[in-house]
Amino acid sequence: MPPPPHSHLFRSQTLTPLLRLRPSSNSSPPPLWRPRRHLSACASAARLADPLAAAGSATPQQPVLGVEEAVVGFVTGKRKATEVAHAVWRSVVQKGDTVVDATCGNGNDTLALLKMVADERRQGCVYGMDIQESAIESTSSFLQMAINDGHERELVKLFSICHSRMEEIVPKDSPVRLVAFNLGYLPGGDKTVITVPRTTELALQAASRILSSGGLISVLVYIGHPGGRDELDVVESFASSLPIDTWVSCKLQMVNRPIAPVLILLNKK
Amino acid sequence: MPPPPHSHLFRSQTLTPLLRLRPSSNSSPPPLWRPRRHLSACASAARLADPLAAAGSATPQQPVLGVEEAVVGFVTGKRKATEVAHAVWRSVVQKGDTVVDATCGNGNDTLALLKMVADERRQGCVYGMDIQESAIESTSSFLQMAINDGHERELVKLFSICHSRMEEIVPKDSPVRLVAFNLGYLPGGDKTVITVPRTTELALQAASRILSSGGLISVLVYIGHPGGRDELDVVESFASSLPIDTWVSCKLQMVNRPIAPVLILLNKK
């Protein structure tokens, strides 16, 4: 189903050349690497210096956070919701899995997911998408910088497409272990271009269809910007509507920080 | 401040002989052990057979859950909110600590807390209270059955008193690491006697005063009974009102199970 034409998400939609429709499972499309570009202003010096740490991946200086450290850190104000999300992903995702980053943004989640699925036989796969071409370019540059191994980079397939259309790019016979959403605007980008309730709802429905049994939909909802709370309402409504015999929907949030992001996790039994 | 006389909590209040007011820190009152009684109907056969497991404590057959297993289990529908709570408590509470069980009920939390604080020198302490004398009796019987070591049992001080008056029983110079609430009615008991918003609010205020820096208030709110949602509103309002420079308030809940208990954790920085 095509998304509604009035959506903000489609202001900058570019279907070519970054989009490759319905690759067959036997011949995955080549990754959409562009010549290296400068990162956008949002890429801080720290991120440039240590992209793996920025993505929550292990570095020699910073070990990967476990769920215990992330959750206890969250409860005590030392860790962010995104670190809890990454830690939970790591407990669900296995090497060789197929996963989806529904909102690439600047590529932090994409890189973290790549590190979770890339195995020695290079059979894992990350399908990344973002409606903003600038986000895909930022993600592409970021991954080029962070990953030296060209074969590993090929495990990422990037598409400039609305997340509501994820079924068009993920092969039908690929069991998907995780679909990750990071809702809001592109950090450092155009803040008027935001994910919006209608297409987010369609994207969640699509994610629920492609997810395999035992898989997880992870939604981090930023609510500090105009429209953020409306989007949270839609996500919560969707999460609440999932039948309890086949889904577990839970929510983790700060209570005395009204604009702190909310983490919603949807597990398909 | 005495609680309001109209509160449901005071229907069965008994100040003597179970209550001992303001014990000095140098001479802790002896535990209020009564002759062993039969447990109430709520004590299932399984609970009788394996009280440590029922309380979430380690047994030879069932190791203690870590935060990772509890949280991932919660997200995937295999673990309960109370198991997450216990796992988080274990990461905060240390041997030798003073902790408070503000709602003893049938004693499961009291026993779990005792196992966390009891050290070889027997310096830990659990102050347990419940407005219902039958709950204190049930807790007392349960602990007698579960703990063979009489010295260890002496680390528990039980009081039949409203939780809003916890400051009257915890010595002023005892730094308190954890105050645990399990809000609702006594399982297996009189369901018309429930914790109610007004005294729960007073109890949370008292807990926030006696808690030491780095300590945790843990509130598991059961909302499936009449009045449960009103009480959740009060707890959430209290949690939201805590200043962000000195408190971290967070909430974990199921979204597609409307009457599932809600876990609220308040960390004092």
Provide an overview of this structure.
The structure is a homodimer of 269-residue chains. Chain A is an alpha/beta fold and 269 residues long. In chain A, 32% of the residues lie in helices and 17% in strands. Chain A has a 7-stranded mixed sheet with strand order 3-2-1-4-5-7-6, sandwiched between helices. Strand 6 (247-254) of chain A pairs antiparallel with strand 6 (247-254) of chain B.
How is the topology of this model organized?
Two copies of one chain form a homodimer.
Chain A: H1 45-49, H2 51-54, H3 67-75, H4 81-92, E1 98-101, H5 108-117, E2 125-129, H6 133-146, H7 150-153, E3 156-159, E4 176-183, H8 197-210, E5 211-221, H9 228-241, E6 247-254, E7 262-268
Parallel strand pairs in A: 1-2, 1-4, 2-3, 4-5
Antiparallel strand pairs in A: 5-7, 6-7
What keyword list fits this structure?
homodimer, 269 residues, alpha/beta, seven-stranded mixed β-sheet, 7 strands, disordered N terminus
Please outline the major beta sheet of chain A.
Answer: 7 strands, mixed
State the helix count of chain A: 9
Total number of β-strand segments of chain A?
7
| Inertia-based shape of chain A | globular
Which structural class do the helices and strands of chain A define?
Answer: alpha/beta
The helix content of chain A, as a percent range, equals 25-40%
In quaternary terms, these chains amount to: homodimer
| Mean pLDDT figure of chain A | 82
Q: In angstroms, what separates the terminal alpha carbons of chain A?
A: 26 Å
Strand order of the largest sheet of chain A: 3-2-1-4-5-7-6
